[in-house]
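User: I'm writing a tutorial on reading structure tokens. Could you give me a worked example: one chain, its sequence, then its tokens, then a sentence or two explaining what the tokens reveal?
Assistant: Sure. Here is the example chain.
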Amino acid sequence: MTAPPVSSRDNKRKIVLEFERGGRLIADLLDADAPDTAEAFWKKLPMREMCEHAKFSGFVLSLLPDLDVHKAENSRAIGVLPGQILFNPHLNNATWHKREISIVYGVAAMRDSFGYAPCNLVANIVDDLDLLREIGIRIHHEGREHVEIKRYEPGQ
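And here are its predicted structure tokens:
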């Protein structure tokens, strides 16, 4: 099972997510759809962050990197799909929340403690959504773990 494309398949930059307790996923960075968010994400790589299950959004994993993006682009709160990676700049409630990356692995609506949370769709996992679901369930049941996110190099 694969995630449907949001934009054309000519995405040039890809990222790799490697989870501490096992699992490796590749995602297309959506440069054309969220250029500022994608560029900030790319510049931050590689990053190693603690990944935990989100509290309010459903089947979503959450990490709290320090990305410097303060605008909405390609935003959505509902209608998100498994395999999508979103960035929440918390434009309406930044004093209460750190900006966060969300990885959707099942039924979800992007929310925070104040209600729906518009998030910038920045990447799509392009393969193995079954593995993503296994990782999400594992983190939900066994607790948080580190994820390393880095630039994809062909042949990795």
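What the tokens reveal: The CA atoms of residues 69 and 119 lie 11 Å apart. The chain has a mean pLDDT of 86.
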